[in-house]
Amino acid sequence: MEYIIEMLNIRKEFPGIVANDNITLQLQKGEIHALLGENGAGKSTLMNVLFGLYQPEKGKIRIRGKEVKIPDPNVANDLGIGMVHQHFMLVEPFTVTQNIILGKEPKTITGRIDLKKAEKEIRELSDRYGLKVDPTAKIRDISVGMQQRVEILKTLYRGAEVLIFDEPTAVLTPQEINELMEIMRSLVKEGKSIILITHKLKEIMQVADKCTIIRRGKGIGTRNVADTNANELASLMVGREINFKVDKHPATPKETVLEIKDLYVRDKRKIDMIKGLELNLRAGEIVGIAGIDGNGQTELIEAITGLTKTHSGTILLNNKDITNKNPRKITESGVGHIPQDRHKFGLVLDYTIGENMVLQTYYKKPYSKAGILNLKEIYRYAKNMITQFDVRTPSIHTKARALSGGNQQKAIIGREVDRSPDLLIAAQPTRGLDVGAIEFIHQKLIEERDKGRAVLLVSFELEEIMDVSDRIAVMFDGRIVADLKPEETNEQELGLLMAGSSTKKAGEN
Amino acid sequence: MIDVLQSIIPTALFFSAPLIFTALGGVFSERSGVVNIGLEGLMVMGAFVGIVFNLTFADALGGWTPWISIIVATFVGAIFSIIHAVASVSFRADQVVSGVAINFLALGLGVYLTKQWYGKGQTEMVSQPFFSNDIPFLSDIPIIGPMFFKGVYTTSYIAILFAVIAWYILYKTPFGLRLRSVGEHPMAADTNGINVYKMRYIAVIISGALGGLGGSVFALTIASNFSHSTIVGQGFISLAAVIFGKWHPLGALGAALFFGLAQSLSVVSSSVPFLASVPDIFLLIAPYVLTILALAGFIGRADAPKANGVPYIKGTR
Amino acid sequence: MSSSHRLFSVLIPIISVLLGLIAGAVIMLLSGYNPITGYAALWRGAFGDAYTIGETIRRSTPYILSGLAVAFAFRANLFNIGAEGQVIVGWLAAVWVGISVEAPMVIHLPLAILAAALAGALWGFIPGLLKAKLGVHEVIVTIMMNYIALYSTNEIIRNVLTDHKTTTESIHESASMASEWLGSITFFSRLHYGILLALFIAIIIWFLIDRTTIGYELKAVGFNPHASKYAGMNVSKNIILAMVISGALGGLAGAMEGLGTYGNISVMSGFSNIGFDGIAVALLGANTPLGVVIAAFLFGTLKEGAGEMPTGAGIPTELVDVIIAIIIFFVASSYIIRWALLRFKGGKSK
Amino acid sequence: GGGADKEEETKDADKGEEETTTDFKVAMVTDIGGVDDKSFNQSAWEGLKAWGEEHGIEEKKGFDYAQSNDKADYMPNLTRLIRDEYNMIFAIGFELKEDLNKVAKQYPDTHFAIVDDVVEQDNVASINFKEHQGSFLVGVAAAMKTKTNKVGFVGGVDSPLISKFESGFIAGVKSVNPDIEVDVQYAESFGAADKGKVIASNMYNNDIDVIYHASGGTGNGVFNEAKDLKKNDPDRDIWVIGVDRDQHEEGQIGDHNVTLTSMVKRVDVAVHDLSNKAMNGEHHGGEVLEYGLEEDAINVATTNEDAMTQDIIDAVEDWKEKILSGDIEVPKTREETEKFLEAL
Ligand SMILES: Nc1ncnc2c1ncn2[C@@H]1O[C@H](COP(=O)(O)OP(=O)(O)OP(=O)(O)O)[C@@H](O)[C@H]1O
Ligand SMILES: Nc1ncnc2c1ncn2[C@@H]1O[C@H](COP(=O)(O)OP(=O)(O)OP(=O)(O)O)[C@@H](O)[C@H]1O
Ligand SMILES: [Mg+2]
Ligand SMILES: [Mg+2]
């Protein structure tokens, strides 16, 4: 059997940690090979080694049977390796075309970039692989899905034969995920080979041919996907059984906590993003907002939390009007918020994890008194939270930046939950996390519900919505178009509703 | 009105030229992600070299002296700026700190060497400075001619030309695309096979060259000699022009010209009837106040290149 | 790990200063001077006797405050190049109150100091406001504000405080920080009580930055305005507050000159450089109050000592600027020193 | 009391070998700028050197200077020289006034002199120059030279000292021809060549053909602009009047020279003179010494023979006589100028 890429016994160390310890990965031409492992297991590191961003301490890399050294991404490109990074490597103010050709620009004889030629080439590529993009649009104006297609085009433009995808679906909507799966299949059909990193077992089962599992930097083994199942993969990865079915009792909703009436919100361009939205949320229930990205979810959350001004309508919390109050007021009246973008909103990355734990409460007793911080109290509290929420960090004095995504998320959840808010908003709380961490977070949300809090869950992942919610509100075009019970619907129906095909109220059928 | 324009435009042109060169240098450096507070120092170096070279070789080179002087100053400015590049690109120094050091170093070294070589704190006046001239034919056009083409310095037009060239390079060529990408998202550039360090070195060296050029043009069109007070704040004004111009070569050009106009307007005003009654102090601070008002009024928010000021360390994000 | 971190943060500045001095020695050698004579003169100029020691401390005093001004803004991610203008208006305001108010010292002196702080604060408020509300880059506005301060102050000295003179009369005794006693123990140096105030304020600023909710907010806003807004902080308010406090510190640096060293203010033909040097002091001091205090003394020492170099050793004073520049470079390039130290250490242990 | 102890201490080792030929030592403290500023620091130093030469004294042993790089240096410089036991110390420039005032009080046994201002202390002689007289005479020259009947004055920083120049100049111009317009502009800096050039450019553009500058380095810009215009149009009459010393050299452009004349202020004469007096035990502490035309401490340069034609020189001489004889009193301030002009 001929391998296009062989990474043999790779070892990569970082100060204080062995990220890759004797890992072997063999990729055949024309296959989709999944790479599975918990957060921090060493997947990205391994791929960065292959892409020439890191140099391994030990091990060999063979390409098409020939041993190679890959000192930098240029060499990787020349060897036909392309990588779609977990965090997109796109220059925001540049156009799609500029991003794709960057570093390999076609020139006219006068030394000018030959944009026409470039655009033509991109059009050809995008037609051939079904990667729809607008070559003249700026990156900052296009959707995440299109950004990802740009990343793929970048690798194809450079003639990549092997494509590495690092958690490509973490940022995509279900529709976009389906499209991506299609794209991957067509890439393979065209003779490309793919390494896919993902935490979603379903996706692996769906498209991958093989799956290599790593745990804490060590290779556990490779399985033929056809010969295995999700449960086996999960337990190989975590080293224990994983409970996929979320355990929960039926909800016992009580008084109304959140009531939104006829809400309108406009974005910067003065376009209505929320158009007369109505929503009720009661204590002791989890309402999941299902919807495709861009249908007003972000605006809804920002309006409730005071980060954006509403145009009209009212938002009542425990029957008190909190419309357009400042974020501090709103938090104090009982709202907790796990933000979608944890780096931008959730944490001050340059603060220590200890300092981050009091981001919402630093001005209150006992963390400060008369404007003077009580560091002892803050650190005592932070230590406590870290143990309670299993945040894995060297110490509370470690900068938040140095923590892995899952641990950052746990810290935020701990901070928000511990304030016992009447309303807890969780936006994409499990994005990019491994199954173990997801399980933990789902449990926490349900615990909160059982303590009598109202939980608003926004997620693009239908599975998560279906598993965790007591009630599902489908959002489309700035409105709630359906209100359903999870046990009375299925993913098909939700998908249709999310695409705006019909409306439905709970209990109608 | 035309009278006023005819007297302020030529002065604005020579006043602005050194600022334009230097600001363009700032644009290159900051577009690549290296903050350059050291523009002032680069100008000092340029002025120093321009004057010293001119004084030394005036006899040998005759009419070519000023031209060769500014070329040499450009060259020395480029070399001098390597210090900033090494510190801020290779040594990952805080770029603001390194720039401040450049300012101290240039002035200290310039005056120190002047004292060593000339035995006094300031040089003689050069005998071969730049002279203004009338541009044939164009200067005969009514109204426009006297405004733009009579008694102008070739260096002023070179400055404007450089701004256009800088725009072309930054926005139309592969080199420019790469340079800007390095200032926005160095890691993206790196994964695309662009050598981030090399690009930043080149950009800083270009800024050194242009800063040196700006300083020497100032010295050879305006000051005529070198002392500790030859360059006092022009570099900072150039830095302001970089930001005012939103890190765009043509914006920087516009900002520098705006500043030159405001400056010469404040001088000319005393001879304009309806402004003559304005107390001098208001005319004196007018250029600075106008700049602030322009920014607050209609220029507004400017977004720096995203990675500006952040040392790039391979393998981190 | 953390103890070696602490060790490095002490070692690196020391090594930087040594390297700067070595470089200065090399330059002296190359220009045909004897470095030992040169440095002996520098030392005499700064610490030769009680007088020079007094003057060195006096010179360092405003640097502490202007350094704090720049450093404080930096902590909120703002670059205050305008400390210079804030120093000038603070100086003016202090002298103004010192001259025009008559009151017992317990009222007059604090009042004059307060006036300086307020004037500086106003000079910081404008760029802060423009930054917070309109997103105007503080660097340009503060540069422009420097010139406005310089020219307006000159105008006020000439036409308001005096009748077309270049220097105001002296402030009343009741507003003066000058001290006969401090002078007498330092042979008539101009050492004044401002140094105590400056050190006290450095402690306050340290406390403010590291131990109060205000400091917590300012730093948070500087690091990540989005997260700060999300956490309920008022981002605009914090930006303005940071600039106001920074400006007030600059104004206080001016008060040191107006109420301590000179007791008056003169028309200036150029900038005082106290504010500009404050940038270097802040950066040398790594933007921490303790660091700023140490850096201010280093700066004061070098600048004061430089005065003796031409007379004492025939060396131009500018050499000291070169040395300062090199020290700043090495402090900035701490990464490379750290790297070299680690190699050295590693090499030894192997 | 403290001062005396001090003096004992500072006789340290490396100065031990010094042996002065005379025990009288003189030194000066410059204002910002060095002894090579081509202006009065330089002139004062030249006076001191001439004095040293006259008495066969070596530099650094019997006479020396201390250079100030900024305002904060004056005091330490003064003190340093006192402690180095100089008997007579000159403070060059009005900027040193306040500091000298304090030092003089602290060291009553040292003799001081200040140039360009008045310090009322028993041990301080105040050297003032009658710049208004010289400015009056160059004003006469300007008035004779102008063809457009418009002349300009560029000041450095507006101050009583510089308004002496301004006042004398205006009075001189108007005395010759009251119809001549005088445009007065200040750059608010002694080191802003760019501002100087902008102002000069504007003045020449408005038909002004003679500019008198009293603006230090700012004047470089004025010379630069004048030379540029001259270079482009050698036939055009463009003139600059220099200040403090003969600025003939600054005006040279090819075969032409734009420096009409200069108002020369012989600080050296005053310093030399006063040093000798002090050496002879003749102190003028507490007095204001006025150096002017009589003492030959104020001159009008005639280096540019082509420009300073005989009739101009004659006119200048005429007016000089009138001043010396007391026929006219040259105004020193703007108020005095107003009165002076009314009386014309
Ligand atoms: N540049 C680095 N310096 C130090 N440690 C690093 C660096 N990059 C990664 N690590 C560490 O190496 C380990 C493996 O990280 P890696 O990024 O490969 O994990 P991953 O499997 O991709 O995780 P995730 O699923 O969260 O993306 C982690 O413990 C991480 O903290
Ligand atoms: N310079 C570094 N020092 C220490 N750890 C690092 C460094 N760079 C990256 N890491 C660690 O590498 C690990 C994996 O990084 P990766 O980019 O895969 O993020 P992640 O954990 O998947 O988080 P997310 O997906 O939320 O961004 C994280 O634990 C991160 O903290
Ligand atoms: Mg990863
Ligand atoms: Mg991840």
UniProtKB/TrEMBL annotation, chain A:
It is a peripheral membrane protein. Gene3D superfamilies: P-loop containing nucleotide triphosphate hydrolases. One of its GO terms (molecular function) is ATP binding. Residues 5-241, 258-502 form the ABC transporter domain. Pfam families: ABC_tran. Keywords: ATP-binding, Cell membrane, Membrane, Nucleotide-binding, Repeat, Translocase, Transport. It comes from the Bacteria. PANTHER family: CARBOHYDRATE TRANSPORT ATP-BINDING PROTEIN MG119-RELATED, GUANOSINE IMPORT ATP-BINDING PROTEIN NUPO. This is ABC transporter ATP-binding protein. It comes from Cerasibacillus terrae.
UniProtKB/TrEMBL annotation, chain B:
Keywords: Cell membrane, Membrane, Transmembrane, Transmembrane helix. The keyword Transmembrane applies. CDD domains: TM_PBP1_transp_TpRbsC_like. It comes from the Bacteria. The lineage of its organism: Bacteria, Bacillati, Bacillota, Bacilli, Bacillales. It is found in: Cell membrane. InterPro entries: ABC_transp_permease. It is a multi-pass membrane protein. Pfam families: BPD_transp_2. It comes from Cerasibacillus terrae. GO terms for cellular component: plasma membrane. Its main location: membrane. This is ABC transporter permease. GO terms for molecular function: transmembrane transporter activity.
Automatic annotation (TrEMBL), chain C:
InterPro entries: ABC_transp_permease (IPR001851). The chain crosses the membrane at residues 7-30, 78-99, 105-126, 191-209, 239-262, 274-299, 319-341. One of its GO terms (cellular component) is plasma membrane. It is a multi-pass membrane protein. The keyword Cell membrane applies. It comes from the Bacteria. It is found in: Cell membrane. The keyword Ubl conjugation does not apply. Its main location: membrane. Coiled coil: none annotated. One of its GO terms (molecular function) is transmembrane transporter activity. PANTHER family: ABC TRANSPORTER, PERMEASE PROTEIN (PTHR47089), GUANOSINE ABC TRANSPORTER PERMEASE PROTEIN NUPP (PTHR47089:SF1). This is ABC transporter permease.
